[in-house]
Amino acid sequence: MRVLVFGNSGSGKSTYARALAEERDLEHLDLDTIVWEPRKIAVQRSREAMMASLGEFLDSNTAWVVEGCYANLIEAASDRCTQLVFLNPGLEACLANNLRRPWEPEKYESLEKQNTMLENLQAWVESYYGRDDECSYEAHRGVFDSFRGAKVEHVSTPDTSQANESV
């Protein structure tokens, strides 16, 4: 099983992917870990470095779940996945989920530091349906609609039991 999970920030990607990885004993990759320099959320690695890291992960694991909001990376891995999962619960759900986001120590030195980014994150989430970048609804919709393999779109925030049921 090789699953790609993507959607807006706050859509439940990490929760869904972690639950699926644990239930099915899959290796898990959060794309943020290969997009950003370690402990430097606002400092992006080169495209070459991101693609190399993604390739290394895919090559070294036979069963995995990869999650993130980066349509270019999702698309790059899509020819190797067995299931595509688009989490699209809507703007209000994403905003509310971000307010409940637990501390992500792999990204931030402290919860306080993480919370200093919340206002910017919420504004970015609010622009999801109007942006045209690789993390926008337009990009996600394009990846999902063009994928010809097994796929599912969740239009409400899935609970962790849905992660195992939908794949």
Task: Please tell me the overall pLDDT.
Answer: 91
Strand order, largest beta sheet: 2-5-1-6-7
Relevant CATH superfamily? P-loop containing nucleotide triphosphate hydrolases
Q: What composes the largest sheet? A: 5 strands, parallel
Question: Any overview of this molecule?
Answer:
- It is a single chain.
- The chain is α/β, with parallel strands linked by helices and 167 residues long.
- The chain has a single domain, classed as P-loop containing nucleotide triphosphate hydrolases (Rossmann fold, 3-Layer(aba) Sandwich).
- It has 9 helices and 7 strands, in the order βαβαββαβαβααααβα.
- The chain has a 5-stranded parallel sheet, with helices on both faces. A two-stranded antiparallel ribbon has the order 3-4.
- The longest helix has 14 residues, at 47-60.
- The protein is globular and about 35 Å long.
In terms of topology, how is this protein built?
Blueprint: E1 2-7, H1 13-24, E2 27-30, H2 32-35, E3 36-37, E4 40-44, H3 47-60, E5 64-68, H4 71-77, E6 83-87, H5 91-99, H6 111-115, H7 118-126, H8 137-146, E7 151-154, H9 160-165
Parallel strand pairs: 1-5, 1-6, 2-5, 6-7
Antiparallel strand pairs: 3-4
Helix pairs in contact: 5-7
